[in-house]
Design brief:
alpha/beta, about 400 residues, 19 strands, Rossmann fold, about 30% helix
């Protein structure tokens, strides 16, 4: 097995519970291990720290998978199997499948001690992502699929597993495209679409469409909390959902509000949101969709002195790197400032950030600054994060990526 020697700073980070070794953490003049191989990590004094998956392409050169040095491939695969089983058991406890909620994250990479592996469930479909050179391999794929089949369909329940890589990660990791065929299907038709439920609302799912694995399941509980707070405020007239994507917040608010407008720059996303609206004919709100750039539309609304009883801000990650964090904060500041100018007294602001490079403290400070500039008194009612099926690891700050602030605006 190859050995990677890392800097003292990186070794200290691993000893404190982190799992990543950046390429800048590697000591110079070392022989490069094979791409995707298991390597033993040692500190500057050659003291072993554990076994990791090596990537020849990523800025994250190695992901620690065990504190045991020189872990054999068979041992690693056994660990993968047992960790998938543990992840499924955790979801049975924290996010059990019911008629009203039959979609959740099954495997959350480092948070489930399975670096480079993600899996989401949408009713009878499971989407698997193998996101590293060390996991996008046939033996890992077969091990994960076998554990998912046994855990989710022990009695031949309807289930189809698809592999769907993240295009950006696939490029960064220099991974080959996966097979277009399903990894497993209990049905000869191998369905690519389904209807799933979140908080009693119905949503359509298509394996070949959308971002990430297809929907943002991490916001499930925040959708419901937003509707509860807006209803409790008594200000339920006109609502704006900025960056609505497939209409998650918009449709939940349509349960309690009179008029809801969802905004997104993607026509495809809005078509999916409109399809989801049609799946829920019981919703009382007059609901419409606008294809527009969020910044341009918010600027125009602000100039026109438009008023809303509640505004949701749920933009994509503005900061995909530490260097982009400063620009991201400016973007968050502008959106929140515009929103705070347009919310009626007693109304609600639901503002989100999914950039793990922007901390909760920094995000809260930006919203605070926007409130001061807007001259509004803002009460912070709740600080929320991702749903429990996206667990956070205290020693891995990257797992606390989603921030959701629910505020009352006077």
């Amino acid at each position: 097995m190859s050995t990677l020697r890392i800097t003292r700073r990186a070794a200290d980070r691993l000893r404190l519970g982190h799992l990543w070794v950046y390429r800048t953490d590697l000591e110079p003049a070392q022989t490069e291990p094979p791409a995707g191989s298991l390597v033993t990590i040692v500190d500057a004094r050659n003291q072993p720290l554990g076994t990791a998956l090596y990537s020849s392409a990523s800025k994250i050169a190695a992901r620690l998978v065990s504190q045991t040095a020189e872990l054999a491939r068979e041992q690693y695969l056994g660990d993968v199997r047992s960790r998938v089983e543990a992840a499924l058991q955790l979801r049975r406890e924290l996010a059990p499948i019911t008629a009203g909620n039959n979609a959740h994250r099954l495997i959350f990479s480092e948070a489930d001690n399975l670096p480079g592996i993600l899996a989401d469930r949408y009713n009878d479909l499971v989407i698997l992502q193998l996101l590293a050179q060390g996991t996008a391999q046939d033996d890992v794929r077969q091990t994960v699929v076998a554990a998912l089949r046994e855990g989710l369909a022990p009695n031949d329940e309807t289930l189809t597993l698809w592999e769907r890589p993240d295009p950006r990660i696939r490029e960064l990791e220099q991974l080959e495209a996966p097979s277009p065929d399903p990894l497993f299907s209990s049905d000869s038709s191998a369905a690519t679409t389904t209807i799933f439920s979140l908080n009693g609302l119905r949503f359509g799912y298509d394996v070949g469409a959308g971002q990430k694995t297809g929907a943002f399941l991490d916001q499930r509980l925040n959708y419901a909390a937003a509707a509860d707070h807006v209803q409790a405020s008594g200000r339920t007239g006109r609502v704006l959902d900025v960056c609505t994507y497939h209409g998650g917040f918009a449709l939940h608010l349509a349960q309690v509000c009179e008029r809801v407008t969802g905004v997104d720059a993607s026509r495809t996303a809005l078509e999916a949101a409109d399809h989801n609206l049609a799946l829920n004919p019981q919703l009382k709100a007059e609901t419409d969709w606008i294809e527009a750039d969020a910044f341009e539309l918010m600027s125009a609304y602000d100039a026109q002195h438009e008023r809303f009883d509640a505004i949701v801000l749920d933009p994509p990650a503005f900061a995909k790197s530490k260097r982009a964090a400063e620009g991201a904060l400016r973007g968050y500041k502008e959106l929140n400032l515009r929103a705070l100018r347009m919310i009626s007294a007693g109304g609600t602001l639901i503002t989100n950030s999914c950039s793990h490079h922007v901390s909760l403290e920094d995000f809260t400070a930006i919203v605070t600054s926007a409130a001061a500039d807007a001259g509004r008194r803002v009460q912070l009612l709740e600080t929320r994060a991702a749903a429990a099926d996206h667990p956070e690891i205290l020693t891995l700050p990257e797992t606390r990526y989603l921030k959701c602030l629910i505020c009352r605006v006077d």
